[in-house]
Amino acid sequence: MKNGKSITLSFLTGILLFFLVTPTASAQIDNVSRILQASQGDANILVREYLKPFGSGFGAGINTGWTNTAQPHKKFGFDITITTGLAVVPGSDKSFDVTQIGLQQLELESGPSITQTINGSDESPSNNATTLAAYETINGQRVKLFQFDMPSGTGFGYVPAPKIKVGLGLFKDTEIMVRYVPEISIEDYGTFKQTGFGAKHGINQWLPGGKLLPVDISIMAGFTNLNVTSDFRITDQDVITDPNNTENPYAGQSTTWDGQKVEINTDAFTFSALVGKTLPIISVYGGVGLETSTMSIKTPGTYPTIVPNPAFETDPQNEDPLLVDTIEQPIDVELEGGNSFHALAGFRLKLSVFHISASYTLSNYSTLNAGFGFTFR
Known about the structure:
Blueprint: H1 12-21, H2 40-62, E1 78-88, E2 95-97, E3 107-110, E4 114-116, E5 131-138, E6 141-149, E7 158-169, E8 174-186, E9 190-202, E10 216-231, H3 236-239, E11 246-247, E12 261-278, E13 282-298, E14 302-308, H4 310-314, E15 322-328, E16 332-336, E17 341-351, E18 354-362, E19 367-376
Parallel strand pairs: 11-15
Antiparallel strand pairs: 1-7, 1-19, 2-4, 3-5, 5-6, 7-8, 8-9, 9-10, 10-12, 12-13, 13-16, 13-17, 14-15, 17-18, 18-19
Signal peptide: 1-27
Protein name: Outer membrane protein beta-barrel domain-containing protein
Pfam family, one: DUF6588
């Protein structure tokens, strides 16, 4: 069997990340008890398809919330704003066909070929689940290495993305913006860190008669990096489904599986041209722009895997056709965001130094963003 190793991790990455940012995914942790296995190539394909809407939605969400007016702060004016973007997952990205994604080792064992992504239906997989299996020919016989049911989705068709931003006005109608959350540990789940920087520049000053215009015109750009790391543990006992036919050289060696974790890194960039009007209490604005995002998912560490037992074919006394083996960093995928061009509109309501704001970004993954904070000048 080419790449004859099978892994015990395919969707745990998405389950852990989604669990970190929204309570609605807590039920997905139950899927960990049914470890999903695939050849390394197939596992990466399945991770990519299962998490595709999360990668796009999360990238769209963190690309919002950079501004709540078209007008930059006056010199030394500043704001502190906490916002959350909520991206809407299109219906077409809530499911996929396992027979159309290029799987090499896995085949459809039973059930429908259409299965859910992480943002798809949360109907229990036991109800007519999509079951995938891997087979190997050993001593002329077709032996099943393993099978598993595809997990359901969360039933939550949205992707949240929280942010904290500080903006500071400088000279020449220019505002710089910073996003920063130092690395924090979420007990039992992992660590979270966010950094970002952006700028907004008013261009009325550069337009003939621009200072006489009744609206503010500006350009804005922002870059955000977010990193999530979560430890977990999958042992040899989690992958053995046929103990009577599986040789396990790692029995009792618990330290073999130390160091397992999932590392998820997201980079997002957005650029917009804005036009709006700022009044003493309310500001309104709109604009168009471009955005990109990339989410990478890696799983450093050593993981248990089920493979054909070479000794079974050469040693007549060996009665175990299957063998527990190891694999290093089984998952390494990148998810490109689904957005490119966008249009947006929003408002800010300012009450003394306190403000609330909201905006809506129209794109492939449309996003509602809302927040509050404090503004001076």
